[in-house]
Design brief:
Layout lengths: L55 E5 L1 H11 L6 E5 L6 H10 L5 H9 L5 H11 L13 H13 L2 H12 L4 E4 L6 E7 L9 E5 L1 H5 L4 E8 L7 H8 L3 E4 L4 H10 L1 H9 L3 E5 L14 H11 L7 E4 L7 H10 L3 E4 L3 E2 L2 E5 L1 H15 L14 E3 L29
Parallel strand pairs: 1-2, 1-7, 2-3, 7-8, 8-9, 9-10, 10-13
Antiparallel strand pairs: 4-5, 4-6, 11-12
Helix pairs in contact: 1-3, 1-13, 3-4, 4-5, 5-6, 8-10, 11-12
Length: 410
């Protein structure tokens, strides 16, 4: 662990260090005032280097949201993550069942994705991500999950607990839950009855829905009208951009739109709305889905929702015309840009995704949302940028479907 005094932090409060000095308090220096600046697509910085930029709220959970945050932090420090709270598996599920805690795994991952770039912050982020092994009671728990559960119990508020953890990790931005009460994902699934493949059954719980062998037809949350986190709603109302995805369609993306208060806030916000599509279909949850099928599921579950831009990797879009038409049905333009990681074609590369975000913000940021009619097949293609040259190209091989599956240990 880095010495806080060695990198500019105060190592004491009050008397000089010594046996009688009392408890040691480590404090960060107050941050300098920042003036928001527009994003220049050619100036994507290092983590924590962005100053100002557009106010962005990113929705999701798990690895998809972490990928989005890792890219967005290169462009702006006016960044809020709104995290789904339906996880019922692994460490999160155990803490939820045993303590009644808000499932902390996805919240922990968002905090780690936004942790400061200095050694102190990175060390704490690594500690939060540490997962205990062995066969004892702590086996499988991530330390950060335990800390978040303990903080929430101590201060009586998951939002206050997240603020304390964010301070410890030097988070650039803010992490908030979708709701301060846990929700359950409930799906109608077909194909589970061999005698009657068209019959549907109710499948309850995020893990069960994400791993079902059947076809998800509809999904809802229980309770059906949980209160949305007030701070999250306020961030949405003040945002310039709302970013949904990438991530598991039914268990990470849709829950935000299935909470009525948040759906209403998103739909009524003056912010522009951007949907980021996955690179591959997720086995079980969206197996066999085309990119345009993802958008139509989104539209079916979120009545009245309009979108300004749909972002996709051209290598993951077999039929750009069909996808552009589906995007236009939501009121959106399709923006194609290389965002796949060369070493893992099923995952988003943070630098490439940041470059694509910057291009979208610069291209569409000047036009008021919904101010112009969207042609049925309007496609913008980002062929190259200062970072896009790192894209995988045609030789990258077939995407690995495993990388989009939710980590059930969270």
């Amino acid at each position: 662990m880095p010495n806080p005094a060695a990198d500019g932090r105060s190592a004491r409060v009050g008397a000089a260090p010594g046996p009688s000095a009392g408890p040691v308090s480590w404090a960060r220096p107050a941050p300098a005032a920042r003036v928001p600046q527009p994003v220049d697509p050619g100036q994507v910085g290092e983590p924590g280097a962005a100053r100002g930029g557009p106010a962005v709220v990113a929705f999701g959970g798990g690895h998809g949201l972490a990928a989005s945050l890792s890219a967005l932090r290169l462009l702006t420090d006016r960044l809020t993550a709104v995290v789904t709270v339906g996880d019922d598996g692994g460490s999160s599920g155990r803490l939820r069942a045993e303590l009644g805690a808000l499932p902390p795994g996805d919240l922990r991952m968002a905090l780690a994705a936004l942790a400061g770039a200095d050694p102190w912050s990175r060390s704490w982020a690594d500690v939060f991500q540490l997962r205990f092994g062995g066969a004892g009671p702590l086996a499988g728990h991530a330390l950060g999950n335990l800390v978040l559960a303990a903080l929430a119990e101590q201060v009586g508020s998951p939002v206050a607990a997240l603020e304390l953890a964010a301070e410890l990790l030097g988070v650039r931005g803010r992490v908030l839950p979708l709701s301060e009460e846990s929700i359950d994902i409930v799906a109608e699934v077909a194909g589970l009855d061999r005698a009657d493949p068209a019959a549907t059954r109710l499948v309850r719980g995020q893990v069960a829905v994400a791993t079902t062998s059947g076809t998800v037809c509809e999904v809802r949350v229980e309770p059906d009208d949980p209160r949305a986190c007030p701070q999250a709603c306020a961030a949405v109302e003040a945002a310039d951009w709302l970013v949904l995805g990438p991530g598991s369609l039914y268990t990470s993306m849709l829950p935000h739109l299935l909470v009525p208060e948040m759906h209403k806030t998103i739909s009524g916000s003056p912010a522009r709305r951007l949907v980021v599509l996955n690179l591959v279909a997720q086995p079980g949850e969206t197996e066999g889905f085309t990119p345009e099928a993802h958008l139509r599921v989104l539209a079916r579950h979120a009545a009245g929702l309009t979108v300004d831009v749909v972002l996709a990797d051209p290598a993951a879009v077999p039929d750009p015309g069909a996808l552009a038409t589906a995007a236009a049905e939501l009121g959106a333009r399709l923006h194609l840009a290389p965002v796949r990681a060369p070493e893992a074609p099923g995952t988003h590369d943070p630098a490439l995704l940041a470059s694509a975000f910057a291009a979208v913000f610069a291209t569409y940021g000047a036009t008021p949302p919904g101010s112009a009619e969207v042609p049925a097949a309007l496609v913008t293609l980002t062929r190259a940028s200062s970072l896009a040259t790192r894209g995988p190209g045609a030789e990258a091989g077939a995407p690995d479907p495993r990388v989009t599956a939710r980590d059930l240990k969270e």
